[in-house]
Structure formats: structure tokens, C-alpha cells
Amino acid sequence: MQGFANKVALLTTISSRKATFYRRSRSTLWTKGETSLNFNNVSDIFLDCDRDSIIYLGKPDGPACHTGSETCYYTSIDAVISSQAEENKLALTTLYALESTINQRKEDSGSANGKPSWTKRLLLDDKLLCSRIRKSCLNLWSSLAGRRLMNYVARWRKMRRQGLPQRWHGFAGKEGS
Q1: Which biological process terms from the Gene Ontology are attached to this UniProt entry (predicted)?
Q2: Neighbours of 132 (CB within 10 A)
Q3: Which end of the chain offers a freer environment for a tag, N or C, measured as fewer CB atoms within 10 Å?
């Protein structure tokens, strides 16, 4: 993996022997493994010839990559280029992959037991498809509405602790107090 380290991150790495980086987007230190417990135990640190880049040499407690791979660098650019050349239209997004799967299931004659797949049943029956779309939309709306309500409650509780401004008294159920 690759990360950015400032002076404090480097000093922390030297003292703790755990690979520590500086997260510029949050202006905080970050130790590899603090959430996954896959720490990178640093045995040595090397400077490049210009002394403007460093490498931590260490042994990880588990996978270094969030994907579960030993390293974050496992995809060869040559492999990507050659696979794109082999396939006329590479499915680069989830939607293209989903469309491809739906088309395969549409053409599929059925499973081993002779019944069509759920996808094929949806494609053959407009009423079933519409009811499934309605249900999915309702689930999405319900989830979003629930999240919105939770945000309102959290905001209200925070403001309640800090003292509600006058305009929030009606919302809090404390009219006029």
C-alpha cells in the first residue's frame, strides 16, 4: 500500500514500529490496522537518494489491502489493457455488468428443475415486475425517510443539550417554554 507520512507520522512509526500515515483529507494520523487489526509491523525504514520519499519495510499481521489481498498492487496494467483489447465492450460499471446478467438470464431456458429464473419470471410477467419495482421503491423510500427522521432526532437532541433556539421550541414539543 502507499500512503502519505509527515514528520509526526514518521516519528510515531519509529516509536511504535507500526506503519503510521498522515491522512491529509482529515488532517489526522492514521495507523494501518487500527480498524482491521491488520497492522503493518515496521522492521526498517528506508530513504530514497533525494531523501524526499520513504519506504516502510515490515511484516503485516494480515492482508494489507482492504480487498483482502496481500498487497494493494495486484493488478498489472498490461493485464488490464490486454483484457480490454480482447473484449469488444468491457463491462466497466456495475450497471453494464447488471445489464449483461439480465440479458443472459433472459436468454436462459431455465434451471435444472425446469423453472425459469426469478429474473426471467420478472421479464415475462409485467404485473409481477411492476409489483417488485413498487416494493423496492417503497423499501428505498422507507429507508431514506427513516434516516431523515433519525437525523432530525439527532439534531434535536444536540440542540436540546445546547439550549434550543426560539424557532425550535415548537418542534421540540415545548411550545412557549
Answers
A1: L-histidine biosynthetic process
A2: 14
A3: C
pLDDT 10s digits, 36-67? 899 999 999 998 888 888 989 888 898 888 88
Burial letters 85-121, b for 16+ CB under 10 A, else e? eeeeeeeeeeeeeeeeeeeebeeeeeeeeeebeeebe
Rounded to whole angstroms, how far apart are CA atoms 177 and 162? 15
Distance CA 90, CA 99 (A): 12
Helix (H) or strand (E) holding 30: strand 28-31
Give the residue range(s) of CATH 3.10.20.810 domains in the chain: 7-60
For 31-41, the pLDDT digits (tens) are 999 988 999 99
Kind and range of the H or E element at 55?
Answer: strand 54-60
Where does 3-124 have alpha helices with state H? 7-16, 77-86, 94-107, 118-124
The superfamily (CATH) of domain 7-60 is: Phosphoribosyl-AMP cyclohydrolase (3.10.20.810)
